[in-house]
Specification:
Number of domains: 1
Helix content: under 10%
Order of helices and strands: HEEEEEEEEEE
Shape: globular
CATH class: Mainly Beta
CATH architecture: Sandwich
Strand content: over 45%
Distance between the termini: 40 Å
Structural class: mainly beta
Number of strands: 10
Length: about 160
């Protein structure tokens, strides 16, 4: 590889890493075929400190096979000393015309969904975040057993830029 190409490659890597300087934790787990209603995706997190506030996000990657305008999730945060906070959340996944929201130029769209703002992890130790789908179809009591079109579930923690 010519020397100028090596320099350009290193420069591109450095710029892409520095663009995401707020990232503290960012992991994804793949969903095989469909997301079963009883399947819980868990993330183990050890926060960097117990002083600074952080913003928390649920990240979802979906394809055109996702046929709903919204997404209901049950997100549970288990604290190191056993306390648990459970939230039922609703996110918009498509505009009124049915066009999927999110970023991406291919069939896969990535959605960065707000979970909690300005969270201070006051307890030291390992936290667990559990994410489960809670979709229902209109007029039906039972939930959607196999949710199609979701390819990956992620969780992200960002430091808050105080500039």
């Amino acid at each position: 590889m010519p020397r100028s190409n090596v320099f350009l490659f290193v420069l591109i890597i450095a710029v892409s890493i520095s663009c995401d300087s707020n990232r503290v934790f960012d992991k994804y787990k793949s969903v095989p075929n469909s997301w079963h209603k009883d399947s819980i995706t868990s993330f183990k997190i050890t926060p960097p400190d117990s002083i600074n506030p952080y913003n928390l996000f649920v990240n979802i990657r979906n394809t055109n096979a996702y046929k709903y305008n919204n997404l209901f999730l049950i997100v549970e945060m288990v604290f190191p000393h056993g306390k648990t906070i459970t939230d039922t959340l609703e996110y918009r996944m498509a505009d009124p015309t049915g066009k999927l929201l999110g970023s991406g130029y291919t069939d896969v769209k990535e959605n960065k969904l707000w979970y909690k703002e300005q969270v201070v992890f006051q307890e030291s130790g390992e936290y667990t975040v559990n994410i489960q789908q809670a979709m229902r179809e209109n007029g039906k009591v039972n939930g959607v057993v196999e949710l199609e079109g979701i390819t990956d579930i992620g969780f992200r923690i960002e430091s808050i830029n105080n500039n």
